[in-house]
């Protein structure tokens, strides 16, 4: 019976025009994004280094105002002259000098000098020109990875990462949530609308829920993967950006480590799979509670925005933070840890928490369903909604 | 006679529609949480922190003393800049600013602040994706300063009692104006799209009752559009009233005479050979709101008619909602600071440029894209012609997708 029901649900899904629209959207989103984004080619590494060198030079304007009078600023000035000369050498080595090893060595030395300047409290450097500590640690991890794996570093080495991280920044989070919520919002409400046909089905409620979640998950995930593959092949062909061995930084245990792009993509898609299942289960729960398809989306969005509102109002509600774990990209890059001020949010903790929440949701759905069987007195007929 | 009963019926359906009620509840809770939780603690770019300024004065004093100690109180060698004299002047202005602020002499405070010694790293609350990649980015900064000075001058010119909340732009009228000026203005249009997205599709659920109503198909669509239009305007007006009352009680109402700075094209003659810098002027809040009230109904009507066409074609309220929203935000897809032509047509002739109506009225759109033909008057003309095109299209589509075909059960 279960498989017959699954076939039936699949046919329903295929007939619904909304699912076609979502499928087309997922299929073409990545490719269109890359096409649009290709209007601005990513800044090559040598230009980036040149900009960094010039910005760093501007710090001298501010240091000069105070270094003759305040001894702390004079110390910072000493370090900064060394940093500046190393930056200049780096620009040479990545450009015409073409020496990857020296580039990396200089980079590591710049990082250690910058950390020393941070120890001194960055005296004399204005707010907008201070390189944040996280940036230094990230650069450190990247360079160590490149050094340990003997990867050659060229001007356009980081192109693939650039494209992938851009599309994922845009997609992961709110857009992903909205798509999953929209595609799953009528799962149980549909049954309520066609009660005469669907009410007497000889299938238990939990099995029905499993079937629905399974179908929607397979459908969403397949199109997501297809769309992403399509986009990546497009980018690989057009921009020669097929470098999947280059490192990407992720945040782990309050530190940044570098892993290859391929491994990074595996992590992202595992995270997206778990997030999809969780959001679909949440849709089922909201359908059970509110019986309205629009309520599903509004309340789902409201729950997602709750931590933001709480933060803007100044409440430090740490129990709301797990809601934000759905944005897998931010969790991996460590931005969420910085945003929420909680340095223990990294990929493995987030995945465990999401897994626990999923199991909890299944438990709640089961519990609510069981509750409808509590008829007191016994003569009252059973009013099951689904 | 039938039309009248239809109007009453449609109105009741819209008011009872769970989706609308939920959305209104969501909006009201957003407004309440903004007014009570976020607004009191919010630091706007116009906020003033006396403590931070006192620290800055101390730093300047230290630097000045250092300059005296090594005799560096003259002009710089190569640039001719008199750093020491500048520092002394800055210290004087800043300490007087603090005193004026603490004495609540806000007119004097504003005059001192306009001298530009108030270094606030936090920039104005703008949509940074719109401002990025400017060909000449220093023009943006000088524009920010000019607009701020014009606004402050406005506080002084009108003989109104200036309060700190007014300077921070937290009063009721100023909040409404800032809401309409920025990207948040899209919420107004999204409400119209949301409320009318299922106006035709929900009837498909109750085919046996509604298919046989003795009213023509085109007339029925018109009646529904009209009801949706008035419903949307009513809800928007109610939400506006709620916001104004709550913020008015908290932070004061503000005055209609306050100035909203606008950017207008250069008034130099056509044969001027230099760069045509934009010029800045002000309009009162009253005029701004009148202009906004002039353009908002046209936009809402446009989207409701668009929703009608899409409902006839797609018959599914979700697709209508998503496609309309995509069209609403379509301008963001191709937007850049230098793009002035799309498929060979200038963007000032296309309606989606004018969906961002706050920026059209304040001239910011013209400034961002540097296209002098984007003006409010042209916007009204383009939008009205789009409405005309949509009306013709709707008539044609309603003849093709007849009532029987619409109610045919497929998806």
Structure description:
The complex is a heterodimer of chains A (386) and B (411). Chain A is built from 16 helices and 2 strands. Chain A is mostly helical and 386 residues long. Chain A folds into 2 domains: 2-39 and 159-371, no CATH class; 45-149, no CATH class. In chain A, a hairpin with a 2-residue loop joins β1 and β2 (255-260). In chain A, α5 (100-119) runs antiparallel to α6, α8 runs antiparallel to α13 (293-313) and α12 packs across α13. The radius of gyration of chain A is 26 Å and the shape is elongated. Chain B has 411 residues and is mostly helical. Helices cover 64% and strands 4% of the residues of chain B. The interface between A and B is medium-sized, with 27 and 32 residues.
What is the average of the pLDDT values of chain A? 83
Please give the largest β-sheet of chain A.
Answer: 2 strands, antiparallel
Greatest interface by residues involved: A-B, 27 and 32 residues
Q: What structural class do helix, strand and pairing data of chain A support?
A: mainly alpha
Classify the beta-strand content of chain B into a percent band.
under 5%
Q: Which regions of chain B are unreliable across 5 or more consecutive residues at pLDDT < 50?
A: none
Main sheet: strand order of chain B: 1-2
| Tally of structural domains of chain B | 2
Distance between the termini of chain B: 33 Å
Overall shape of chain B: it is: elongated
Structural class of chain B: mainly alpha
Question: Kindly, what is the distance between the CA atoms of the first and last residues of chain A, rounded to a whole number of angstroms?
Answer: 17 Å
- The number of helical runs of chain A is 16
Number of strands of chain B: 4
Return the average pLDDT of chain B rounded to an integer.
Answer: 86
């Amino acid at each position: 019976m279960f498989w017959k029901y699954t076939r039936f649900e699949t046919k329903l899904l295929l007939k619904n025009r909304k699912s076609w629209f979502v499928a087309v959207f997922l299929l073409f989103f990545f490719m269109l994004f890359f096409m649009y984004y290709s209007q601005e080619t990513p800044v090559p590494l040598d230009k980036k280094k040149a900009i960094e060198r010039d910005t760093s030079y501007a710090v001298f304007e501010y240091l000069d105002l105070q270094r003759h009078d305040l001894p702390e600023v004079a110390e910072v000035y000493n370090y900064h002259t060394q940093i500046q000369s190393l930056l200049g050498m780096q620009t040479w080595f990545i450009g015409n000098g073409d020496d990857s090893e020296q580039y990396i060595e200089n980079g590591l030395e710049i990082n250690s000098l910058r950390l020393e300047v941070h120890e001194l409290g960055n005296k004399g450097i204005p707010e907008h020109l201070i390189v944040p500590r996280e940036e230094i640690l990230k650069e450190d991890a990247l360079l160590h990875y490149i050094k340990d794996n003997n990867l050659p570093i060229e001007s356009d080495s980081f192109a693939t990462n650039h494209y992938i991280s851009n599309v994922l920044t845009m997609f992961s989070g709110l857009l992903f949530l909205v798509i999953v919520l929209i595609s799953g919002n009528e799962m149980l409400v549909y049954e309520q609308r066609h009660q005469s046909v669907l009410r007497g089905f000889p299938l238990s409620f939990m099995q029905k829920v499993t079937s629905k979640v399974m179908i929607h998950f397979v459908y969403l995930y397949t199109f997501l993967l297809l769309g992403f593959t399509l986009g990546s092949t497009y980018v690989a062909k057009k921009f020669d950006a097929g470098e999947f061995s280059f490192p990407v930084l992720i945040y782990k245990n309050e530190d940044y480590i570098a892993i290859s792009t391929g491994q990074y993509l595996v992590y992202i898609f595992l995270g997206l799979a778990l997030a999809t299942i969780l959001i679909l289960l949440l849709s089922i729960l909201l359908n059970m509670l509110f019986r309205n398809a629009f309520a599903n989306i509004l309340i789902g969005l409201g729950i997602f925005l709750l931590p933001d509102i709480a933060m803007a109002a100044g409440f430090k509600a740490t129990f709301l933070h797990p809601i934000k774990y759905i944005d897998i990209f931010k969790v991996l890059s460590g931005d969420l840890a910085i945003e929420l001020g909680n340095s223990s949010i990294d990929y493995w903790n987030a995945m465990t928490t999401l897994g626990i929440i999923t199991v909890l949701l299944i438990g709640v759905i089961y519990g609510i369903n069981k509750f409808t069987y509590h008829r007191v007195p016994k003569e009252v007929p059973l009013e099951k909604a689904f | 006679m039938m039309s009248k009963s239809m109007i009453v019926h449609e109105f009741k359906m819209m008011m009872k529609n769970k989706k609308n009620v939920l959305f209104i509840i969501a909006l009201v809770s957003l407004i309440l949480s903004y007014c009570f939780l976020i607004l009191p603690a919010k630091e706007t770019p116009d906020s003033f922190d006396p403590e931070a300024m006192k620290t800055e004065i101390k730093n300047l004093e230290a630097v000045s003393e250092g300059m005296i100690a090594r005799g560096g109180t003259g002009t710089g060698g190569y640039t001719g800049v008199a750093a020491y004299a500048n520092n002394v002047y800055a210290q004087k202005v800043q300490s007087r600013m603090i005193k004026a602020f603490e004495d609540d002499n806000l007119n004097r405070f504003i005059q001192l602040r306009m001298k530009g010694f108030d270094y606030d790293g936090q920039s104005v609350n703008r949509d940074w994706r719109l401002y990025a990649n400017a060909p000449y980015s220093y023009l943006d900064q000088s524009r920010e300063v000019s607009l701020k000075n014009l606004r402050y001058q406005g506080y002084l010119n009108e003989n109104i009692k200036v309060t700190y909340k007014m300077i921070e732009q937290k009063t009721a009228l100023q909040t409404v104006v800032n809401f309409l000026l920025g990207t948040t203005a899209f919420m107004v249009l999204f409400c119209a799209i949301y409320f009318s997205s299922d106006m035709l599709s929900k009837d498909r659920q109750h085919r046996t009752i509604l298919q046989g109503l003795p009213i023509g198909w085109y007339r029925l669509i018109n009646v529904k559009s009209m009801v949706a239009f008035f419903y949307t305007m009513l809800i928007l007006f109610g939400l506006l009233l709620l916001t104004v009352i709550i913020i008015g009680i908290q932070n004061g109402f503000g005055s209609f005479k306050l100035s909203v700075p606008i950017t207008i094209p250069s008034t130099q003659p056509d044969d001027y050979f230099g760069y045509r810098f934009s010029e800045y002027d002000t309009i009162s809040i009253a005029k701004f709101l009148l202009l906004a009230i002039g353009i908002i109904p046209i936009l809402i009507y446009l989207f409701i008619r668009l929703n009608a066409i899409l409902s006839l074609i797609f018959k599914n309220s979700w697709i209508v909602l998503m496609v309309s929203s995509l069209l609403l935000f379509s301008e963001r897809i191709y937007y850049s600071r230098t793009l002035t032509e799309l498929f060979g047509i200038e963007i000032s002739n296309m309606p989606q440029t004018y969906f961002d109506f706050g920026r059209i009225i304040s001239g910011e759109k013209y400034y961002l894209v540097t296209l002098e033909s984007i003006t409010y008057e042209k916007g009204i003309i383009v939008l009205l012609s789009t409405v005309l095109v949509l009306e013709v299209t709707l008539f044609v589509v309603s003849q093709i997708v007849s009532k029987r075909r619409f109610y045919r059960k497929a998806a």
